[in-house]
Write a structure and sequence with these properties.
The protein is mainly alpha-helical. It has one domain. The chain has seven helices and no strands.
Length: about 110
């Protein structure tokens, strides 16, 4: 499919928006975590990382840039330590909360 002159892809626009509003990354990643498919979260995290600079995030996280591209690909399977390092490098951290349905079953 040929790209129309003056248009940007959805992905490019998402990255532009994430770059323009760093606080948007949190809401974007939270929404991605709601999906049952972990590839959705990896894609969202990759977009956040690209918006903040892949090379810079890789350096701060202590990961080779090429490895980070592979790790955040749809077929990637990051180690928890890598995921936490990347999140920290983007200025975010992982937080957990109990799902209401799980609390109700435990009571």
């Amino acid at each position: 499919m040929k790209k129309l002159k003056g248009t940007v892809s959805h992905r490019e626009r998402v990255i532009e928006d994430l770059r323009a509003d760093p606080k948007l990354a949190r809401a974007y990643l939270l929404a991605a975590m709601e999906d049952d498919d972990p590839r959705v979260f990896l894609t969202a995290l990759r977009n956040v990382v690209e918006a903040r600079g892949m090379a810079r995030i890789a350096q701060v996280a202590g990961v080779r840039r090429e490895s980070l591209y592979r790790t955040l690909s749809p077929t990637g399977n990051p180690r928890l330590s890598t995921l936490l390092a990347v999140l920290k490098a983007t200025g975010l951290r992982l937080s957990l909360q109990t799902q209401k349905s799980v609390r109700d079953r435990a009571a």
